[in-house]
């Protein structure tokens, strides 16, 4: 098998369902022969490693460890699902305090053991906040840390495809921006159904305004619906998409959907949120989304919600006040 790179990829939280699926996906996509699985739960970690060995992936060397120093030594790419999962009735925001603490330690471990890492993808919720905390404490550049936001855009694509009875691939340009949570901004102006702009369909017999509102709500509640249907939070879709993200920065195919990234411009300040992003060998870069006045207002509201969560981190003493961030990370 040909690999994109021979550099070390570390999967954090590898004993869990998301982590084990990431390991399998990374091997199937031929990212690197050098995959290290890290978790604090040794029996599960050993079990996942055995499963990967039993798959017989040609040329892939799976290692595992419960020692973070050993895991992160010489790491060039990291994907972390190492937080608590969401349970039924919980919002992503409900996970804030505990998982922000996990993200703080992750950032400190990166700074201590692999400061030369090239890119880190954070997917444990609330991802905008855990990604931000990881970035602050890691000392990395903003382009080197991104978070999983693509699920929301793809859930919008899926709902529209089901409504119109077309193949999912025939619904294009689906985008949600801002937070990966209840306040996400769902954009219609970028989307097309079989080449027809979605804005031309909303308010017609093909898609009433009421039905569009329902589709937006289903998009926002997509993760909660998985929990209701399966009895656990989603794991296959975040696993696959996070590996696609890391594949892009390894030099693979460009990532097709928005990612969460650190934003600091005239309008949005010191926040991690989904933008119009590009993921490639240079890391993550972004442009500000362009939309209707209503969509931009929704994005502004999502930003305001994220700012409240960020400020709560300061209250909880997980991060210092924004003005002091560059003392910890000069890149901010």
Descriptive tags:
43% helix; 18% strand
User: What does the main sheet amount to?
Assistant: 8 strands, mixed
Low-confidence stretches: none
Order of helices and strands: EHEHEHEHEHEHEEEEEHHHHEEEEHH
| Main structural class | alpha/beta
Percentage of helical residues?
Answer: 40-55%
Shape: globular
Using the CA coordinates, give the radius of gyration. Answer: 19 Å
What is the number of E strands?
Answer: 15
Q: Could you walk me through the main structural features you see in this protein, from its secondary elements to its overall organization?
A:
The chain is of the alpha/beta class. 43% of the residues lie in helices and 18% in strands. It contains twelve helices and 15 strands. It has helices spanning 17-28, 42-55, 68-72, 96-113, 127-138, 150-164, 198-201, 209-220, 222-230, 236-249, 293-315, 325-328, and strands at 8-12, 34-38, 61-65, 75-80, 119-122, 145-148, 171-172, 175-177, 185-187, 192-193, 196-197, 259-263, 271-274, 276-280, 283-287. Strand 2 (34-38), helix 2 and strand 3 form a beta-alpha-beta unit. Helix 4 (96-113) runs parallel beside helix 5 and helix 6 (150-164) runs antiparallel to helix 8. The chain is globular and about 60 Å long.
